[in-house]
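User: Okay, second chain of the day. Same drill as before: sequence in, structure tokens out.
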Amino acid sequence: MSQSYNSIKPNVIDDEMLQKAVEEQWPEDIGRLAKSEGVDLKNVTELQLGFRNILQIDNLWQFENLTKLQLDNNIIEKIEALESLVHLVWLDLSFNNIEVIEGLDTLVKLQDLSLYNNRISKIEHMDTLQELQIFSIGKNNLTALEDVVYLRRFKKLRTLNLTGNPFCEEEQYVLFVVAHIPDLVYLDFKRVSDTTRELAVSKYHYLIDPLEHEEAQALAQLEEKLAKQKELEYHKRAFVEYLNGSFLFDSLYAEDTEAAKLAYLPGVDDLLQAYPSKDFVSVCENLFNYGLKEYEKREAEVSEFYEGLHEVLTANQQEGSKIILDFENQNKERLDEIHHATTYNIAESKRAEYNEDILQLSETLMTLEIQTADQLEELIKDFEKNIAVIASTFIENVKGIYPFDSVLVWTSEGAFSLTVFYTMAQCRDLENRHHEKLLEISINTLEKSVKNELDEDLPDDVRELLVDKTTLVNMVNASHSVHLLKIDMRECDILTNAYRWQASVTGKAFQDEIDRNRNRVKEIFQYIDNLQEQLDNS
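Assistant: Same drill. Structure tokens below.
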């Protein structure tokens, strides 16, 4: 059921073996050329390493574009060192000594996997192989028919080979497998008939129905999780993630051990209840909504810029193509005139005329490119200015440099606009006011404690604070500092992301244009050089 060690010394996958394998799988003439000039292993898409007495998989990281790998008929004991082969579609590990399925997590594109004739006793560790269509694991040590249920997760699996495993001897083996993998087309090299499928469903529906119910629930949970992740990514792009609720406020107290003690003081609980629900969370939620609106503005500005960019480039391409097409329509005729000239002087005259036309074409194309580059430079500079205004407005509003919202208020005398601030500065202001009230409560409680006027039953570690004013004030201030630091850090995150976005989006626009212009000039030079070469050879 597996490969035996023979008298030949086990091999390791070294550079010499890999080079030889690459040369052998190519035609003889190409193989000789590869041997003389060397091969860039990044360009190799298929590799055959079967029948080489390999004991351990190693040294394959260079084949980063490999799609097909044969490691069959060796003495491999462990699946390993394949994590870099992320483009692998076909993998053959048959006829080895593998005991555990592992090391396949990154091979998410794998469609065809053969583990035939090994020592595997359990089907496992394949969750990421969602593209799997063909799976061969016959002639192994699979004894529990229930292991087949694991394969239900592979919705694209159509061909399965299990023959030669101990559980294949069970009377209901085929019906059990077909019932649990309903989309299977081929099992053990035989097509699954409609009759077999119907019998399988009829016999095992009592097992399948609960499974389908569980899978439906799991799918619903997964879809909900993915929807939340998608929503979170949207919020992150708007720089306001976790501001739509009490997340920031909760974080103020998450690691504040001092606040937990102070919460026992009389009146602090009421203070805390009023603080988040009425003010702090409201500020965060309004800042969150503002951030989403600003994100849409940013996206609209970027979209409008690239639409304008596309219009300019399209016009340039159309005009350039027309110029070249007009020239090409006369190109063959000019070369024929030179070729069929009756005298040397006539040929030289025609050649000089054609050379002048080529120079004129070069000048025309370069002039067009300069005009286009100037247009795009102006467009990008305007874009840079607009982005700067959008970014600075957002940043200033978040910091609270000036108000960014207003509401219409109705009174008996009519309506008027009321300016509203929803900024990180207001979060700090709320925290400062809360701190003042907390400090006042703490000192009052201390004074009552000193006078033995404190009726409340407090924990011992809290009562220990009510002895020394300096200690108590320091504790309240320490708690306050933690809260302000959390607010500052959140503000810093928002501002940093805004600055990075501004630099990234404008930097990309400038760099893309530099690259485009460089490539276009290179294209023109290459085209003109080609025309000159044709002229020289005429």
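The longest strand covers residues 405-411.

User: Thanks, on to the next one.
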